[in-house]
Amino acid sequence: MCESCGTAGEELSNQGVSRRRLLAGFGLGAGVSLIGLTSLATPASAATLMDARWCNPALGYFPAGGYYGAPRSGGPHAGQDITNSTGTAVYAAAAGTVIRRQWGGGLSGRTGNGIVISHGGGAYTYYGHLDTYRVSLNQAVSAGQRIADMGATGNVTGPHLHFEVHSGGLGPTVNPVTFLSARGVDLGGGWPRIDPGARGATVSVVQHLMNQRGSGLVVDGQYGSVSVSAVERFQSANGLVADGQVGPATWPKLVYSLSEDAAGHHVRGLQTALNKRSAGLRVDGAYGSITTTAVRTFQGVNRLVVDGNAGPITWRALVG
Ligand SMILES: [Zn+2]
């Protein structure tokens, strides 16, 4: 499709321009009221894409030239590269089914051990240059489940994860950074954003952390009105914008720095977060040796400082 790097870049910037024109036309010509625009701009006003369905597939850094659309001999780079060392954990970015587990994911032009996960609704993710597979073909996976180890298989200069998002079917790619950002996930490794209406394990983590403060929430993984109200009160009490969105400003105040022998709802939250990342712990609220080992394992495979303590950096990696 793209014969040269220059052509590819031009196509991308033209798309940006037409999108801006579309948005401008919408605002001017469609008779949208100011109230309508305001409610669209308020993150917590309606169901949003930041519903905790998605999470970070791997920790590392973005290498220069590894961005989506970067010039490549065979056409623009179809994914975002995340660099770390061989053996770094690779997780499913959302729940789905492993539909490919083969060289290049069976996708044209890709190399190395690859996995493709179908997430439904025409969305797919591709994980390339893997070292070791940790799931089988046709296996159902949950968001955050460990699926592989990062590696350097195929045509690469060093170990990294090549991560693609396909939207509208398997084939057409989108920018993984912006796709995940719209869904509350910072592919660069920051805290996630979770809006009212979200559901899943990370919502349960929030509920456990709120219960440590006496909220008495039912831990059901549903970020409904009772949980949202509790978070909004917590935000107000901590000088935060009380919008109900659990994001980069709220998370650091919400998590607890925990270590062995701690006990309580916050430890249940930690165990729930570890289980999302395949720890397989009993959620009993007791930070004993098994939980310490799970924290150390998680830290090790994510190339964090391995101390067995759950501090802010470990929490951010767990829930991100
Ligand atoms: Zn790549």
Could you give a short description of this structure?
This protein is of the alpha+beta class and 320 residues long. It has helices at 5-29, 34-41, 176-182, 201-212, 225-237, 251-254, 265-276, 289-301, 312-319, and strands spanning 80-83, 89-91, 96-103, 113-120, 123-133, 140-141, 146-150, 160-166, 173-174. It folds into 2 domains: 1-11 and 48-185, Distorted Sandwich (Glucose Permease (Domain IIA)); 201-319, Muramoyl-pentapeptide Carboxypeptidase, domain 1.
How is the secondary structure organized here?
Layout: H1 5-29, H2 34-41, E1 80-83, E2 89-91, E3 96-103, E4 113-120, E5 123-133, E6 140-141, E7 146-150, E8 160-166, E9 173-174, H3 176-182, H4 201-212, H5 225-237, H6 251-254, H7 265-276, H8 289-301, H9 312-319
Antiparallel strand pairs: 1-8, 2-7, 3-4, 3-6, 4-5, 5-7, 5-8, 8-9
The structure holds zinc ion (ZN).
Describe what you observe in this structure.
- The model is unreliable at about 1-45 (pLDDT under 50).
- Strands 1, 2, 3, 4, 5, 6, 7, 8 and 9 form a 9-stranded antiparallel β-sheet that branches.
- It is globular and about 55 Å long.
- It is α+β, with helices and mostly antiparallel strands and about 325 residues long.
- Strand 4 (about 115-120) and strand 5 form a beta hairpin.
- The longest helix is centred in the N-terminal third of the chain and has 25 residues, at about 5-30.
- It has helices at about 5-30, 35-40, 175-180, 200-210, 225-235, 250-255, 265-275, 290-300, 310-320, and strands spanning about 80-85, 90, 95-105, 115-120, 125-135, 140, 145-150, 160-165, 175.
- It is built from 9 helices and 9 strands.
- The structure holds zinc ion.
